[in-house]
Design a protein that fits this description.
There is one protein chain. By secondary structure, the protein is of the alpha/beta class. It has two domains: 41-94 and 283-315, Immunoglobulin-like (Sandwich); 97-280, 3-Layer(aba) Sandwich (Rossmann fold). It contains nine helices and 15 strands. It has helices spanning 8-39, 94-97, 114-132, 157-161, 178-190, 214-224, 243-251, 265-278, 331-356, and strands spanning 41-48, 54-62, 75-79, 82-83, 88-93, 101-108, 138-144, 148-155, 196-203, 227-234, 256-259, 280-285, 295-303, 306-309, 313-315.
Amino acid sequence: MHHRSLPLLARVRLRLGSTFALAVTLLCLLSVGRAHAQSVKVHLEGVSIDKLPDLRAYVSVVDEDSKPIRSKGGFKLQMDQNPLTDLQVNVQSFAESKEPIDVFVVVQVSSVMKDGLSAVKGGITRLAKTLAKIPESRLGLISYSSEYKKLEELGRPNEVAREMDKIKIDEDATETRMLDAVRVAVDLLRESVGKRKLVILFSDGIDAAGTKDSYEQVGKKAHDAGVGLATLGYGPFEAGRLRNLIEMSKAAASTARGTKSAGDISSHFDQLIDEILSTHVIKFGLTQSGDGQQHVFQVLFRSGKEDIASEPFTVSSLPQFEPAEPAGWPWYYWVLAVAGGLLGLIILLAIVGSLMGPKR
């Protein structure tokens, strides 16, 4: 039946129905895009100002399943909540940068972790092989149950990998001291200069002396020291306690992973290694000199139509330096400008030619 043969009221209802359906569709599309953006997390692990005017930011981007997202663009910098424009930006993966990294792996060895320990040892061995390919990188081991033990100081990764037998289950442990072990690892990494620094924690999220705020405080301590704190939780009996690890990693601007199944530990560890290598090393050429004052930086990543902000990172004092040159127009802008000019000239000549041609 044609619309014209319908009564006026029916046609109005039909049009309103079509308009409503279109509006609902648009809202759904917008909500899907917004949900996708919200599922992406941007972590600013640390900032280095030892080679100003180039400020180096170590940024991880992960999806809702904690899988790393790689990108060569879409990053912006803001200082004290003000966007910094016209900056030269260079993005590399950590693997491409060839920068060294110092890593301490902290492993819980109380009996509750028995089923997952073999997978963790395998993960540490794979991590060691990866770090051995990055010059000057070091690996260390700390275990803990009722107390912490420094099994291996920071050293050559391959040598540390040969000492996996030192990680043994403590059958007699009645309580765990996770926070003490993490604090020691952070303090030891604080002494590393000119390197990326990371603690990897394998734990069930329980500390005998832990309070509601203590987990977040330890994470904040790591972040203030420029130390990443990636957690791998294993909670076969009290999975709810893994929330403590999430709070720690969140305060340290790092990624938390967790499982109730020992069979997932190996894949989670591989995902963590992948995140280490895919972390973005972003150089922002600052165009204004420092003033010796404290400043707060954030990195924004463009996901869809939204800019997703990282956690803030505080630089206690931004020294004076020779500013970088502002970013110029990208090369393809010039190509387009020249091509557009040539096209305009051709059109102009054609018009002039047609006007000056012989009259019939």
